[in-house]
Write the structure tokens for this entry.
Amino acid sequence: MRANKVHLLISNRRTIKFIDLNSWGSDTFWSPVMISKMFVLIFLVSFIAIFVFSETGIASTRFEDLLEKNSALIKKSSSKTVEPVLAKIRAFGGPVATRFLKHWKAKKIFLVKSTGKFVVGAPSAKNGKKMVTIFSIATNKQLSVNPARDLKQLKPNSGVRAKIASSLVPLQLLSGSLDERREGIETVERKVERPHIAPLRDALKKESNNILKKRLTKVFAYATIAFSNDDNEVKAAIQSLYEDLSIGTRAALNPLLSETIDVAETLPTNVNLARVIIPNQSIRNWDGSVQKTNTFWQRTPELNTLTAYSLLVEKNLAPNPVSSKIRDAKIISLAKNGIVAGVRLSSLNNEASRDAVYDWLVKNKGLPARVDEEQMSAIIEKYVFFARYNHSSKEVVQTAIKVLTNINRKVAFYQFLDLLLDGISLVSIYFLAAIGLAITFGVMKVINMAHGEFIMIGAYTGYVIQLFVPNYTISILIAIPAAFLVAFLAGIILERAVIRHLYKRPLETLLATFGISIALQQIAKNIFGTQARPLTSPEWLDGALVINDVLAISNIRIAIFVLGLVFFGLILFVMTKTRFGLETRAVTQNPSMAASMGINPERINMLTFGFGSGIAGIAGIAIGLFSKVTSELGSDYIVQSFMTVVVGGVGNIWGTLAGATMIGLLQKGIEWFNPSNTLAAQTYMVVFIILFIQFRPKGIIALKGRAAEV
Amino acid sequence: MRETILTKYFSNNRHVFFFLGFLTLFTFAVVILAEGFGLGWLGTSFVKTLGKTLCLCMVAIAMDLVWGYCGILSLGHFAFFALGGYMIGMWLMFARTKLVVVAAAKNLALPLTEEEIKSAVGTQIFGVVGGAEIPNIWAFADILPAQLAFVILIPGALALIFGWLAFRSRVDGVYLSILTQAMTLALALYLFQNDSGLRGNNGLSGLQNIPGLENVQQSLVSMYFFIASAFILGIIYCLSNLIVSSKLGNIIKGIRDNEERVRFLGYNVEGFKLFIFVYTAIISGIAGAMYYPQAGIINPAELAPIASIYLAVWVAIGGRGRLYGAVIGAAFVSLMSSYFTGGQAPDIALGFGTLIWTDWWLVLLGLSFVLVTIYAPKGIGGVFDLLAKRNND
């Protein structure tokens, strides 16, 4: 209301200006009609102005009065006593109250010590002195700059701040500003409380922004579920969340299924029964239904004898059992000179003898009797154990179960999809890491243990380039070809210096390249140190593609997938469509025949090795982007890469893809069964691969015919 | 001189004679010079280093048998080595913790029951990985003979199963190397888990305190282990030499040189390979069981795949296909490594900077290893060939 009036005032002022500029001095302006109109206008304007100004004036003074009256409670606020003040402020309402509450929550309210008035303050420093610029709460106008010691800052504790936030909600939800309303909704989304229902309902009617309206509807449903006493209303609210996958929804619905385990002599009829529990036998399912134990899935029963019995003790339906601790204490306390019941304490080194001594004490000294497990079972059998829902309405609980079942099914589906996508990104990484090896190992039959170090060289190249080129996008674009080039050159040097001497001795290539590997790792350690170096991805790779509340794919995963795809295509193209690829394949199959056709096998070997190493360098950039660059970066991937190549089938790019797919998906799949333990997943995967190679020693895609013999 | 079997054996295998002689002399020298019994010139930790080196020589002999004689480049023998260590480590840790627990309970009014002792030991050992229950694989940890048997049985059984699977499907050459490496990796990853029952990456520790020898000084304990290691090394050397110099050894060497031909001659190649694989795994297990009580701690990092590759490096530098080559390689490289990485070696000031050995030793080792592979495939052992040739000429 007040906002509208102010607006009117401004428009009236404009009218005056308009008159000023255009009509002053003109004849028509001074005509009697005009003059009379003018008087009316001036009268009207001044009346409204007086009305509005006085109203704000009154409002502000009223609010300040309110604060002053409650100043003791505001100054020393505690979450227990602050509520009445907040109620008054809420009742007052309006932007002034909102502003005050927000500043209070942000610890920006100061008390002027001399006058006892509350002001908004912004601390600053001047000439090394602490100063506070203060503003009026009512008008938000700057008043003065005071030394800090003249003021006292109000520091509400977190409990009070939570209460303030909750009180802010109704004010914010009905505010004219979009941001305020959004802020209010966010607060409610974090924690919805009973007093929010009414403002939520009002806000829902008024809200014009579609996105906010959706959020409001959902929060209103949460509030209804949590606080409404009308079962039909609650049921409708639950139904409205049928399609919603967010964690908030699940958190809102799950309390409806909360239950209490109870015991009685006969099953009562007046409770909302969830299930009957048979101790030591029945297992609880997530939705409260019961299942019997079986030997197939060893799941622990919901109640065992001991817990069932302690429940009986809690309800005073059975005597307290004597725990072994109490038993031992009694035995010790009743012993004289180390002897009790004619037995030496030092001989009581097993349970049976202690029980026997205690039983003797029960008979002769009147101690409470022990209850052993058999007796416990006998007592338990006399009673019915059951779980009852804490919510009174059966229908509400059933609706909640139905909706939750649907939600859980969908969540499971999206989680599976997420896992699959996760697996695919892992496949891309394994593929990138292994494809260079597939070329050198598969095509040239050369084991290159230093392959991991080429990955490392690529990653460090990226790091060094980022030191010189601060723009991350450009530096990555430079780094990819640079990493290829550096690793390519390193590969050619390695081939010329070492591997060319060992083509006839493949096992020894393994050892020689291992020597290179440890030397390169140590050199990297000496140059770059042992700490991890960052390879920062450009900002546009930081986000994620959000599909829904469950499924989000990070951009970096997509980028690596695309990179893997591009390189798969590129390598396939090079190997099958270019002269270089043709010559490589020719040399692989029969070097001497290729040589007689005018191909230089030495040159081809060198280039192929360089090519494979170069691709390892690019893989280094990809791996470095999502993990830190260390000198051990490559050796983490070397065994996996070898397995990828071997499992896929040697000498075949499609085979490497198949191998990477199998290993990556398998690893994620095993992780799915046991998500807490990635180490176990890796262990089982390696064991699986060992077994797999037993049955397909030549890999998934095995070469046939003469090519296989080379 | 009357010709007995023994003298005939030694005259045909002169290196065994020389080796045993040298080993005996070396052992006596160390005994005399060390703190335990003699002059005290060698510190306890150095005696332990020497004792550990002898154990590494044992596993190097195993590696030489399987790679140098049979042509299987196994990258998994350090896994067997560590398994042996774990088996003995379980007894050492359990028995010692039990002694500590019982000693601490001496003043209680009631003596501890078996269950109470077990649960106290469990809390002591597994508290670090957030457990208190003793896993099932520790069922026999209290019984020394059982764990000693496991030192042989567990690596042997693993090698038998793995080898049978691998050789049966004719996985050989490079593939077998990668497969053995995968086996080592799987085992290491398994042991890294906290719920593997072997204390995850904490491993087993305090193994240098031998139960029953609490009142014996470490200098003496180190001497016992050193002498025992030397003794076992001697036995393993002789036993392995018996194998390689017999007809069995010829077949094995035949498999290395041309597997197909041996198969066509009617030999069961897989059986022979399996025998060597299991035999060497057992040697590795024994070596590990001797090594880790001297090292004092074992953890899964010990059986990282790289350790097994280092083993191959030792054998290659020492010289494949000769038992003394493996011993020389293991002793030489491991002692050099501990000398240079231990920080005792003086840094060398070059014109442009200082050569810090701890930083550059691995680079030097790696490059020298490349040079040995390319230019001296026979390793250090090849020098003896040259000497023998000169003598004959």
Summary: Chain B has a mean pLDDT of 88. Chain B touches chain A through 50 residues (CB under 8 Å). Chain B has one domain: 5-392. Residues 77-104 of chain B form the longest helix (28 residues).
